[in-house]
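Quick log. Single chain, no ligands specified.
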Amino acid sequence: MLTATAAAAVTVIASGTRLRALGTAGAATPSCVLTGALEEGPFFVDEHLQRSDLRSDPVTGVMSAGVPLRLRFVVSRVGGKLCTPLSGAALDVWNCDALGAYSDVRQTAGKKYLRGFQITDPHGVAEFTTVYPGWYPGRAVHVHFKIRLFTGSAKQYEFTSQLFFDDALTDRVHALHPYAAKGKRPVLNADDGIYTSLSQNQRRALTLGAWPQDDGYMGLVDVGVRVA
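-> predicted structure:
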């Protein structure tokens, strides 16, 4: 398996600004900003579930309640001074629901909500719709993502990281139904050991800000990876 050095730079945008410049095809200029990877955590399940809208449970058909969160990933291969779109990569996204529960673990075994993957297109783009995550003990609010390259069924490359959220934005979202039923989260970003393991620049790059889109929020996630 190839080793990974990776980058992630995150900018949240309103639908009326940078999205219009990108166009509907999703082409974008890569950012090529390198950062470190973050741990996978205990809740990754390789469901082989290819889809862009992660909110429904394909087993029960039930939609996860919560504020919609649309994420557009632009994945780039960084090499020397060149930065080119990384197409054909499997990009998984998974997060807990509004009340802090992941699917297909422990009491939710067999359910598959808020999980899925897409294959990056020729521009390195993959898009997902999930819900803004809730909280669970010991962690700040976050979304996991993983990028993998395969030759046939053999995995050749893997990179995993996490996205965090501006605390003020989380306060606004978590004051709404159904989040408010769980009460105020005890762990802010600054209290999260995984978040604080990042440098200041990496924290800024991996923290989503507050930009509304439709009835939820939207984020543009520029990810650059060095595949050695």
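Helices lie at 18-22, 167-174, 193-196, 200-205.
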